[in-house]
Amino acid sequence: MQLDTNSIDNHNQSRLNAHKNKLSYWADEVEKAEATIQKLIDFQIAIPSWALGTGGTRFGRFAGGGEPRNLEEKIADVGLLHALNRSSGAISLHIPWDIPTDPKAIQELAGQYGLAFDAVNSNTFQDQSDQSLSYKFGSLQHTDAAVRQQAIDHNIEVIRHGEALGSKALTVWLSDGSSFPGQLNFRKAFQRTLDSLGEIYAALPSDWKMFVEYKAFEPNFYSMTVGDWGSSFLYASKLGPKAYTLVDLGHHLPNANIEQIVAILLNEGKLGGFHFNDSKYGDDDLTAGSIKPYQLFLIFNELIEGMDARGMNHASSLGWMIDASHNVKDPLEDLLQSVEAIQLAYAQALLVDRVALEEAREANDVAQAQEILQDAFRTDVRPLVAEARLRVGGALQPLALYRSLNMRQQLIGERGAKAVATGL
Ligand code: LRH
Ligand code: MN
Ligand code: MN
Prior knowledge:
Protein name: L-rhamnose isomerase / sugar isomerase
Bound molecules: 6-deoxy-beta-L-fructofuranose, manganese (II) ion
Strand content: 5-15%
Organism: Spirosoma endophyticum
GO molecular function, one term: metal ion binding
Largest sheet: 6 strands, parallel
Structural class: alpha/beta
Distance between the termini: 24 Å
Keywords: Isomerase, Manganese, Metal-binding
Low-confidence stretches: none
InterPro entries: L-rhamnose_isomerase, Xyl_isomerase-like_sf
CATH class: Alpha Beta
Radius of gyration: 22 Å
Mean pLDDT: 97
């Protein structure tokens, strides 16, 4: 389904006056506003191909209808999001859930929507029907070399799929670990995983990155072989300069200081990118910024400080990806909300008075340092984010337009009420 530009123009026209009023607040700080708007325009967030259908829990799944039935329809959905917000210009594929059987045609289709392909994700946490050996006891860590080889071959195949589409990174997330004390020799599991990752690393094209995603728990609940940023950092350091750590916000033990983890990884040149989402308890995969927006802001605060110190381009040096799913919301509405929340956190963090903050820190003026951060966090930057969209042809209020055009009903009309997407 294509969104015609008239719908966007009409929507924007009817809201233009109210928008300009809100924007006039920035009249005294035009320079700051302009710099922020430009950075927002450049900032693109990749949509996961596995989050376009209604997510479920292990207790059930309540499909919402009109879900994309194949990769082509998933690309169309991301194209729709991008047409609405002009900030979702990339898609991240999970293989084998979304195999591009005709990569040329898929690339062409994505190009029509202005979409690029971000990191490709491998899957050695499930057994596929055509697979000869089981991952029940792990993949890259497995005691049986043949299972390890099967998982290595799969990852290399995923790289090849990505190459055909113009991806530049492979994300490896492993469910490997153990469920009970005594089950696993930790040292052997680490070494086998490192050796297996080394074989995958050797198959990376020269301009590719490998993202090693860590997770503290689930599906293994006693130990995870890539369980925290420390172990991911170790793997990435031992593998070489093309390997980085990927931070999924939901993959920490409760109350972990993620912004500090981000600062240290960035300083070591080993931060690869993000899977944005939010959580109250564990890997809840909720809408970004829906539970802890201040944490999201603090993460961006560290990102901007660290990236600027290292001369890194905000838009292109790291992988900015969402990894969320929801079982009670329309996935497209959920994703629009996530993108907006990420942009808001980014814009607020751009407003932090860094000179004053450093001064306060050097003087151990704790209250002042907090004031500076919270002043930026409490600033309403929604008009700046809307203005950024407006300037590049997006909608002032993407979610409102999506609703007023009855997009979900249209998708149900096209695809059927029982259309269910592949994924988790
Ligand atoms: C694991 C994870 C990982 C997978 C995705 C489906 O919890 O975050 O990124 O690839 O979920
Ligand atoms: Mn993830
Ligand atoms: Mn996860």
